[in-house]
């Protein structure tokens, strides 16, 4: 899909031809104009047919007089914040999607801030997304051209639109791989997707894929314990984005890549088990984040680690009560084989030590307990470092990809004690999201700033709207961009005093 900016001259929008024109009507008015569109907006507001303060309220007009656009939708955007704009665009698209527009132009009655402009475009892309890969008679996305109309010379909007393009590409790559059925998204195919991403990115991204023998040689016994119940061989995917000097410590992103989760011997109930194809959404979000940063090219180094396998109840599968040895040397008593995500992540977290990272962030659809705690609005955020937690929370607020910090008190780890190993992989139902995070914490490299994002409630939607959300790609990208900006400012200050 083509995403662009349309600079507006004195003639305004009256003569712009498109299938649908979506106008964001805010509570703050812009420059007065005698255009037909401006007059129409003024009349609508004066008549009380649209309350601009009620974000998401809409008024649809077919073939409006004096405009070249075939359809016009006015959508209330309140004060014009990124969140209000997102709601307005989502509602506006709902009014025109049945007409299957190929071209959509978004405009605003008042000046948009860069973050709101970005939100408008990403919201339209999200709302118009269609999955088609395995559909025999697909109904592909009809929207081929998405544009944002802005006055000539508007500050910061070119960068905002560039960011929007990258985020759209990253989020949709994450959606694509999370949405694919498990037989179309095996560990091998996921590794192929990572290689393809690196090829498209050019020299800025490198990809290495470790096979089963190499994983064995590393001593990743916890990861392999989960993988051995499947006929599909595991893969350990390593992505490296080099946007700064090699000596600079990278941020390491670790994505849970369970391409299908039956629960293993502790098998899940049949209803909704099909949704366990989404259990690799953490891995998909790492791919999506790399897609975006490869396009935006921030000045920092990033490593992506994806342990990918299936969790199946084969005759070779790990059993409740089995004890396995992790890469760290710690032994783990597996009390529940359906708590498998933490087993593959713990080896990946230990592996991350070799990069001497400035921060480690793991992303995983880890616990149903987090869904109960936070629902589908916010991802669970756990961290051993206040500065990292603050940065991730701020990135979520800025990108509307929200998270919420959860506790990590030492007392929560008491339930993980085992008579037969160094640690058990579960600690009962109470505080299940926290005890899972406490398990992971044991394997974080000494002294490393670490955060865990539990996205079990936010990575996909069920029911009639079933499908991947692409979260938390936007949060991760915003966090990485903020880090790069912070580093650039530090370099400038250091240089000025140098």
Fold topology:
Layout: E1 2-8, E2 20-25, H1 36-47, E3 58-62, E4 71-76, H2 82-96, E5 103-108, H3 114-128, E6 145-151, H4 157-179, H5 187-201, E7 205-210, H6 212-217, H7 221-227, E8 235-242, E9 251-255, E10 257-261, H8 281-296, E11 301-311, E12 323-325, E13 331-333, H9 341-351, E14 359-364, H10 368-374, E15 379-383, H11 386-399, E16 403-405, E17 423-424, H12 432-441, E18 450-454, E19 460-461, E20 467-468, H13 473-497
Parallel strand pairs: 1-6, 2-4, 2-5, 5-6, 9-11, 9-14, 10-11, 13-17, 14-18, 15-16
Antiparallel strand pairs: 3-4, 7-8, 8-11, 12-13, 15-18, 19-20
Walk me through what this model shows.
The chain is of the alpha/beta class and 498 residues long. The chain is 35% helix and 21% strand. The chain folds into 2 domains: 2-128, Leucine Aminopeptidase, subunit E, domain 1; 169-485, 3-Layer(aba) Sandwich (Aminopeptidase), CATH 3.40.630. Strands 7, 8, 9, 10, 11, 14, 15, 16 and 18 form a 9-stranded mixed beta sheet that branches. A 6-stranded mixed beta sheet has the order 1-6-5-2-4-3, with helices on one face. Strand 3 (58-62) and strand 4 (71-76) form a beta hairpin. Helix 4 runs antiparallel to helix 8 and helix 8 crosses helix 13. The longest helix is centred in the last third of the chain and has 25 residues, at 473-497. The radius of gyration is 24 Å and the shape is elongated. The chain starts with a strand and ends with a helix.
């Amino acid at each position: 899909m083509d995403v662009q900016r349309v600079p507006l001259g004195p003639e305004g929008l009256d003569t712009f031809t498109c299938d649908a024109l979506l106008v964001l009507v805010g509570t703050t008015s812009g420059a007065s104009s005698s255009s037909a569109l401006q007059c129409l907006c003024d009349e609508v507001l004066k008549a009380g047919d649209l309350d601009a303060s009620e974000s998401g309220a809409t008024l649809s007009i077919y073939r409006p007089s004096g405009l070249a656009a075939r359809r016009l939708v006015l959508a209330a955007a309140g004060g014009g914040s990124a969140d209000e704009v997102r709601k307005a665009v989502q509602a506006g698209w709902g009014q025109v999607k049945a007409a299957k527009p190929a071209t959509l132009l978004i405009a605003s009655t008042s000046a948009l801030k860069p973050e709101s402009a970005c939100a408008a475009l990403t919201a339209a892309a999200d709302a118009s997304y269609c999955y088609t890969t395995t559909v025999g008679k697909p109904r592909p996305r009809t929207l081929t051209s998405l544009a944002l109309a802005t006055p000539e010379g508007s500050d910061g909007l070119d960068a905002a639109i560039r960011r929007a393009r990258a985020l759209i590409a990253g989020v949709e790559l994450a959606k694509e791989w999370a949405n694919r059925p498990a037989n179309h998204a095996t560990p091998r195919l996921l590794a192929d997707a990572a290689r393809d991403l690196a090829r498209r990115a050019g020299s800025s991204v490198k990809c290495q894929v470790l096979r089963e023998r190499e994983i064995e040689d590393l001593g990743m016994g916890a990861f392999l314990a989960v993988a051995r119940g499947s006929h599909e061989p595991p893969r350990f995917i390593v992505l490296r984005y080099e946007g700064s000097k090699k000596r600079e410590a990278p941020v390491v992103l670790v994505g849970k890549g369970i391409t299908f989760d039956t629960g293993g011997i502790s098998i899940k109930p049949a209803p909704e088990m099909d949704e366990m194809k989404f259990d690799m959404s953490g891995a998909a979000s790492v791919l999506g984040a790399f897609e975006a940063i490869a396009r935006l090219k921030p000045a920092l180094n990033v490593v992506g680690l994806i342990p990918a396998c299936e969790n199946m109840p084969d005759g070779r599968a790990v059993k409740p009560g089995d004890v396995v040895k992790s890469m760290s040397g710690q032994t783990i008593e597996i009390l529940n084989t359906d708590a498998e995500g933490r087993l593959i992540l713990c080896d990946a977290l230990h592996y991350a030590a070799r990069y001497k990272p400035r921060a480690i962030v793991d992303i995983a659809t880890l616990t149903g307990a987090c869904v109960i705690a936070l629902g589908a609005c916010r991802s669970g955020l756990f961290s051993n470092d206040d500065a990292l937690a603050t940065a991730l929370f701020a990135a979520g607020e800025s990108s509307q990809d929200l998270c919420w910090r959860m506790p990590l008190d030492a007392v929560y780890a008491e339930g993980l004690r085992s008579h037969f190993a160094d640690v058990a992989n579960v600690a009962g139902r109470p505080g299940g999201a926290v005890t899972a995070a406490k398990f992971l914490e044991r394997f974080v490299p000494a002294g490393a700033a670490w955060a865990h994002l539990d996205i079990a409630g936010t990575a996909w939607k069920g029911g009639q709207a079933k499908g991947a959300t692409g979260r938390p790609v936007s949060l991760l990208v915003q966090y990485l961009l903020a880090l790069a900006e912070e580093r650039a400012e530090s370099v400038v200050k250091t240089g000025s005093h140098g």
